[in-house]
Amino acid sequence: MDISALLTSAGINIAICAVLLSLYSILRKQPSNACVYFPRRLLSEPVKHNDPFCLERFVPSASWIMRAWQATDEEILAVGGVDAVVFMRIVVFSLRVFTIAALICIFLVLPMNYYGQNMQHKKFHAESLEIFTIGNVREGSKWLWTHCLALYVITGSACILLYFEYKSITKMRLAHITGSPPNPSHFTVLVRGIPWSPDHSYSTAVENFFSTFYPASYLSHQMVYRTGTVDKLMEDAERMYRMLKSIEPHCKEIPLPCCLCGGTTHSFKMLKNESESVKSKTSIDGLHPIHREKERPAAFVFFRTRYAAVIAAEVLQSHNPMLWVTQLAPEPHDVYWSNLSIPYKQVWLRKIATLLGSVVFMFLFLIPVTFVQGLTQLDQLSHTFPFLQGILKQKYMKQLVTGYLPSVILILFLYAVPPTMMLFSAMEGNVSRSERKKSACIKVLYFTIWNVFFVNVLSGSVISQLSVFSSVRDIPVELAKAVPTQATFFTTYVLSSGWASLSCEVMQPFPLFCNAFSKFILRVQEEPKNCALNFPHHTEIPRLLLFGLLGFTCSVLAPLILPFMLVYFFLAFLVYRNQILNVYVSKYESGGRFWPIVHNTTIFSLLLTQVIALGVFGMKKSPVASGFTIPLILLTLLFNEYCRHRFSPVFKSSPVQVSIRNLFRSLENSPTIFQLRLFGCTGSYRDGSTRRAMGEARSDI
């Protein structure tokens, strides 16, 4: 692949970004698209509809860019919470470290690569991209110390920035725990693995256990009830009833025929009386009391103080670790109700099964990745498909096939990965939506690193890829041989998967299509009230970390990727800030628990970069550079071990010191507060089946 093919790919992606961003700046001004581009603002304040004939609404503008640039971290924290700030800190960290890497590698390493051989250079646009990699440096070159120096600078700056970011986010998490207003989850413990007894119910067992061992702090409890098919149908029926009831005052008969079936656009009949409604006819409220056979071995236990809840959640309750398992309860909106009915003894089996399923899916994905890599090798492609020889000889078709098509095809296949990993994470038995999303984030991260980086680097048949790992000692050498040759593919991948995906992210094509279908086909004029989306951490964090991995590994070996990487992170800074301020709503908060994933992945990227550089220096017969790389690996491991002991425990457990401070700050001995807390906690942790089992009429689903 030469410079002209790279410029072709860059030109295509720049054109796509310019068109989509210009189109976005126009569409966001249209009143009919307010539920697509301003759903978060619609929840708090109505969006004013401007004059539909104003010419300014049809002219592209950069006002949204200025608004995103001027937003502060305090605004992001107020709007999106700690998780939104942590996500933006990933982007800022990447911008800083790759700015340093670009400065030293472009001005120091790149000239050494370009003039590494005594050869006659072609014109710049006809030069092969391999000329700009470390593969062009001759063996035994005395200038390889510049690559080692650049590696030290990049590693040192990354570790220093990581330390300050980890320290800052740890303080932010503690401030969030200390300063957050009273929440039912602060005083609630989720108990699973309740032992069954033929003499009494699960509810009686919970009350007897905590009344005996926590007599001073135990307040009350709420059992979890089995959700069956009838319960799910009841929830759907009640949800539909409330939806129809909410739009009844606004709906009118429209004589225009429906575009799909020929009937009127409002061809259903609203039920006017409560006795005619779905709820009164099909609800089991009041028909059945709490049945013992509906109870599940899980319960929410409420305590008088936050300190008592933390102690109960951290202490081993029984000599059998599979019984009376406790943890701090997630927030009410964060509870994943369907998994609470899963017996705790099945959880470890489910985790093993989903792990095996993820590994199988990961290896099955080798088929499309191998096909994509075949497109980058024109000789093999022409040999396999002889009828394509004439087409591939054309200059522009060759540039399109080698520079743009492979990365686009790989991106299309990768769209199936996040939903699949989210399904695996739900099957694991996670009891909260945030834990499910965190688990899916880790799975997607491992999957993308394996398939996008390692499989593409060690491209070929599945047998040859497995044979590479037959000898552990050969891994650094094989990576050192393969990474510089695949740097061109990674550069085009950053262009297509990075730049274009950010443009699609800001455009929101699927919600835009649904909104247009609803407004112009179904003729629904009312703005949807629940159109806000939760931030997709499980897809965006792995993408950022994958680009960070590509940037670190290619920085010294093929520094030409760094300018494209900087453009991506700068565009991501603007786009994600805009989306957090206007589009996404934080329905639950994890308190920044995604940052340890970021830290560990960054350390892995640095170590991988150093191992590959060590293999390259050995191949280039540079003992000085190889000798200085080994201490750098040890220092990186020591830094990671320090951070693991200094910061990581705060993200796994809630500090008792913070809970005691909150204890002294609040009036814990007031009976009024006890009553309010009891009412608020027990009312919050009730799903549909629980409320129906207790004979309550649900007011919100």
Molecular structure report:
The model is unreliable at 246-290, 460-470, 667-676 and 696-701 (pLDDT under 50). The chain is mainly alpha-helical and 701 residues long. Helices cover 62% and strands 4% of the residues. It has 29 helices and 4 strands. It has helices spanning 3-27, 34-37, 39-44, 63-70, 73-114, 145-179, 202-213, 229-247, 278-282, 306-314, 347-364, 366-375, 378-384, 389-392, 395-403, 405-414, 417-427, 433-457, 462-468, 475-507, 509-521, 537-557, 562-582, 595-619, 623-646, 648-652, 656-665, 671-684, 688-693; strands at residues 188-192, 218-225, 295-303, 325-328. Helix 17 (417-427) packs across helix 18 (433-457), helix 20 (475-507) packs parallel to helix 23 and helix 20 (475-507) crosses helix 24 (595-619). The chain has a 4-stranded antiparallel β-sheet with strand order 2-3-1-4. It starts with a helix and ends in an 8-residue tail after the last helix.
Summarize this structure briefly.
This protein is mainly alpha-helical.
Q: Notable features of this structure?
A:
single chain, 701 residues, mainly alpha, four-stranded antiparallel β-sheet, 4 strands, disordered C terminus
